[in-house]
Structure formats: C-alpha cells, structure tokens
Amino acid sequence: MTTTAAAPEAQHVPAASRLFEPARLGALRLPNRLVMAPMTRNRAAADGVPQSIMATYYAQRASAGLIIAEAATPNAVGQTYPNITAIHNDAHVAGWRQVTGAVRAAGGRMFLQIQHGGRVGHPDNSGHTPVAPSPVPLPEGIHTPSGHQDAVTPRELTLDEIHATVADFAAAARRAIDAGFAGVEVHAANGYLIHQFLGQGTNRRTDAYGGPVAHRIRFALEVVRAVAAEIGPERVGVRISPGLTVNGMDEGDTDSIYRALVGELAGAGLAYLHVVFAEPDSALFREIRAAWPGTLIANPLLGWGVPLPADGGKQAGERLLAAGADLISLGRAFLANPDLVERLAIGAPLNPLRDKGQMYAGGADGYTDYPTLDATLGATWAEASPEAAPVPEISAVPEAAAFSEVSAVPVAS
Question: Which parts of the sequence belong to the NADH:flavin oxidoreductase/NADH oxidase N-terminal domain (predicted)?
Fold first, then answer.
C-alpha cells in the first residue's frame, strides 16, 4: 500500500492590510503600497553599465507596487564604490534599458535613484579626487577594488562646478527617462553630496551655498528644480534622511533644515517625498507629513546591524500608514524575498538574509538565487512525496526578460 504524503499546511491568511491596497503615483497605478527601496548591490560593470543579471534580479521583484532602482551616478566624479551603476552616457542608458524592459515585461514599475557621492568616493574607484561642499574628509575609510583604504580629502566645489553638477543631475534624469524609467528619485540623504550640503559638519562654505539654512538647502533645491524642469515634476521624487549620521554626517540643526527644505519643495508638484528610517511617533515625521501635500513614502526604522523582524517590517509599515504615510519602502526584505508582496499578503515565512558579503560580492549568489515561496513549497512537497510527479521549476522572470560593492553603508530597512 502506498502512503500518500500530506501536502504542506495552508498558510494562515492574515486580516486585510492597507499595504495591499492599490494606490496612484502620478500617472502610475500601483497594485499595492509596498515599494522596493533603492539598495546598492555592486553588480554593474566597472564602468557603471548595468549587467544582464540585474534585469533578472529586478524582474523577479516586479510585484512590488514600485521599484526604486539602486543609486546611479550622474557623472564620473560622483562614483562612490566599485561596480556602482551610472547614468551619464549612452552605454549606461542601453544597459538600464534591458532592466526596465524586463521589469515591464513582468508587470512592474520603476524609478531610478540618482546619487552623487560627494566626499564618499576614492580615486581608485572613480579615477578622480572626490568633490564636496568643503574639504572635509569622510571620517571612516572606504572600500576600493584593492581593499579598504583611508578616505582622501575632497576638493571643494567651485561655483562653476556646482552649476555644472546641477546640470549633470538634469541630464541624468533625461537619460533615465530615455532608458525606460517612469521617473527618478533625487538622493538627498545618507551622507552623499546633496546631504553634505545640508549639514553643518560637512558644509563650511561662506558663500551662497553655506552658512544659514536657507543657503545650505540651496543646492538641493537647484538640483530638484533642474531635474523637474527637464522631465516634469510629476516624474521626480526626493529622498531625505533627517538626523541620520551615516557617512559621518552631522546636520547640526536637523529640524530647521527639513522644515525649510520640505516647505520649499511642497509647492513643486513632485511625485513623492521619501523619508528614510521614519518613526511614526517622531514629532519631525508628523511635521513633515503635515507640510507635505503629496505622496509620502516612509521607510521604517528597523535597526542597524540587527536581524530583520520576522515579518520583514510589515507591522512597522502599517504603523506608518496609520500615521499618514501613503507608501512603505522596504529594503532587506525585498532583497531576500523576490515574492515579498505575496508572502506578506498570506503571512508566509520569509527567506532569511544570507551572509552580508553576498549583498555586495557580485554574481548570482545572494542576488538572484533567493527562492520564491512556490519553489520552496514545491521542493518540500517533492521531498515529502517521492512518488509524486516532479515539480516544475518556477521562475519569477519571463523567459524573454532573462537578459544576457562593497558598501560602507548598510542597505535600507
């Protein structure tokens, strides 16, 4: 008599959550309110051209309401770490076009984050001496192709170079649209160039771009306005990280900075404002929500260097929605779970994150080989029932979409 193995237990379906409600973002209709946060993964070629494996990675995660692709540099001197993507020449556009095409074929929607590293860079990474608001070096070292090295003192940007950098952001935004992205996110957070202009500790200028808050927010406003003029404000988001001290940041007067910056941006008709490590009980978060008239994406604070909660940040996201956020961005949970939306919707367990080194080491390991729930359950069923028919391999990427860093900053929540 043949014994039939029991099928895996059905997953408990949790109560309905607003995370899975549809939403609108400008002209985009989002099927849910979960956003894949931009995460450096160091899978580009040395010259910043996106590689074919990136098309697979992002298309696997196309069920996110919105994907914000990893930071791409708008010019050569803005490169931060090895194998970071870029968006300042035709080869970059062609590489990204493979990625956006794969995501569209899988039913997804994408923005591209544009980031200039400022002092977070090294000549061995970019071929250039880093530039910054002031010649204040990064206090910690930085990863390079030959290993960890001390940071170099950046060169202070001249006024002409500031204006040229603003123009580079606008040109990069145009290239992003040409590459098939629905819009761009201006990265004004996490200790990179725009954030360096905002902070007292990194901006010691005495001209129109330094000193009082109104001067220190000038560069951010000029970049955002130039990008919006180039591609339309409805295609532009801005990411901020109030109070974040990563990359040696010392803002000094956080509340004043973001009251002024958000107030100036509020009437620009932008696609969204993205707040990093948001806390629903924070007075500043509530103040930002009240001042911002449009879509607010909140990235929950899930801790630095600690394991993810078992739900990947779902409850934290729901608290932020209740506090007024419109969309919730998650990082590591999407990294380890290509089908994160489906898992959270049914209360299924999440894949654990693998060794941190695999996040940035290059190749498929820890990148495109995280299993979907269907594949995991299929393997369990096949092991439990040897006489059952083989379970077909399940791919989250349509066949047509399968085109052929070491970072000092942990990925977002």
Answer: 19-350
